[in-house]
Specification:
Elements: H1 13-27, H2 56-59, H3 81-86, E1 94-100, H4 107-117, E2 123-129, H5 132-138, H6 146-154, E3 161-164, H7 172-177, E4 182-186, H8 200-204, E5 208-211, H9 219-228, H10 230-239, H11 251-310, H12 315-323, E6 328-329, E7 333-336
Parallel strand pairs: 1-2, 1-4, 2-3, 4-5
Antiparallel strand pairs: 6-7
Helix pairs in contact: 10-11
Domain Cytidyltransferase-like: 97-225
Organism: Eublepharis macularius
Keywords: Coiled coil, Lipid biosynthesis, Lipid metabolism, Nucleotidyltransferase, Phospholipid biosynthesis, Phospholipid metabolism, Transferase
């Protein structure tokens, strides 16, 4: 393959001058002062400037590449990785390309595109989506068709441009046509189409920018979950109005799912009755305990009142003592006797 047009041997004076300016800036450092710049940084601190990113995707879907007009009369020269890291002029963003199938678009896809968008301070992210024909030929059948996958990627906030019917292997002509500076993908060798790594030539050319895969989420994982719990989802969709024919469910399985649904409803009702019964018994126990406590309180109160009236120190005893008299009984020894005011025992 001829990579001459994609990787020029010499850089133009404009880029060389930008490199010199950036190097001077990085070498000149001063102590931070309060109230000057973010976090106290001064203008001469060796901190890359934050360049406003292209935010087209935040307002409307990202456009398709075949719908954009490109001025090919202007020469396009790649920037180096160091220049891209330092930051490029606003009118010259770093054009990063990321490709994939993006079937059942999920958070792992979005995070990979977010990493690609965040590689450099001023990044224009181009995302290639392979067609159904290529995907079914090299990888396998997809859940979503190509138009659905194009639309899903279009509405990702990090994407600036979408390439439909993207090639499986990137050629120098494709890279030059789309003026691509770097290709972003995870660093794991991707064996396909008779190659042990379809990105090998990109890595060797110094255009590869690695990203990290998101563990625990992938299209294959999602499909595995659905296949594992197939009966649950089949019953769920039958209940929601889908026909057995739409779900590719046989007549016997359809009846089995409906029977299982009825059995589950009965179980749920029994469970609800049990829970309500437990709640009723609990309320009765609470009421019983409350009644017993109140009875004990009333019993103590009654006994206390009785003792206050009839006990040895009670009110009735004190009243009798105040109205009677005392004498000595000669027959049975000295004893104070009291009997209704009389002096006899």
């Amino acid at each position: 393959m001829d990579w001459t047009g994609v990787f020029p041997a010499e850089l133009p004076d404009a880029i060389r001058g930008m490199e010199t300016q950036g190097s001077t800036r990085l070498n000149s450092r001063k102590r931070r002062k309060e109230g000057v710049g973010p976090n106290g940084a001064t203008e001469t601190d060796g901190i890359p400037l934050k360049v406003p990113r292209n935010c087209l995707g935040l307002r409307e879907p990202a456009p398709f590449s075949d719908e954009l007009e490109v001025d090919y009369s202007k020469p396009y020269i790649r920037v180096t990785y160091e220049e891209a890291l330092r930051g490029t002029p606003l009118d010259r963003p770093v054009r990063v390309y990321a490709d994939g199938i993006f079937d059942l678009f999920h958070s792992g896809h979005a995070r990979a595109l977010m990493q690609a968008k965040s590689l450099f301070p001023n990044t224009y992210l181009i995302v290639g989506v392979c067609s159904d024909e290529l995907t079914h030929n090299f990888k396998g059948f997809t859940v979503m068709n190509e138009n659905e996958r194009y639309d899903a990627v279009q509405h990702c906030r990090y994407v600036d441009e979408v390439v439909r019917n993207a090639p499986w292997t990137l050629s120098p002509e494709f890279l030059a046509e789309h003026r691509i500076d770097f290709v972003a993908h995870d660093d794991i060798p991707y064996s396909s189409a008779g190659s042990d790594d379809v990105y090998r030539h990109i890595k060797e050319a110094g255009m590869f920018a690695p990203t990290q895969r998101t563990e625990g989420i992938s299209t294959s994982d999602i499909i595995t979950r659905i296949v594992r719990d197939y009966d649950v989802y089949a019953r769920r969709n039958l209940q929601r109005g889908y026909t057995a024919k739409e779900l590719n469910v046989s007549f016997i399985n359809e009846k089995k799912y409906h029977l299982q649904e009825r059995v589950d409803k009965v179980k749920k009702r029994v469970k609800d009755v049990e829970e309500k019964s437990k709640e009723f018994v609990q309320k009765v126990e609470e009421k019983s305990i409350d009644l017993i406590q109140k009875w004990e309180e009333k019993s103590r109160e009654f006994i206390g009142n009785f003792l206050e009236m009839f006990g040895p120190e009670g009110a009735l005893t004190n009243t009798a003592n105040s109205s009677g008299s005392y004498t000595t009984c000669t027959r049975s020894g000295p004893r104070a006797c009291e009997f209704m005011g009389r002096n006899t025992c």
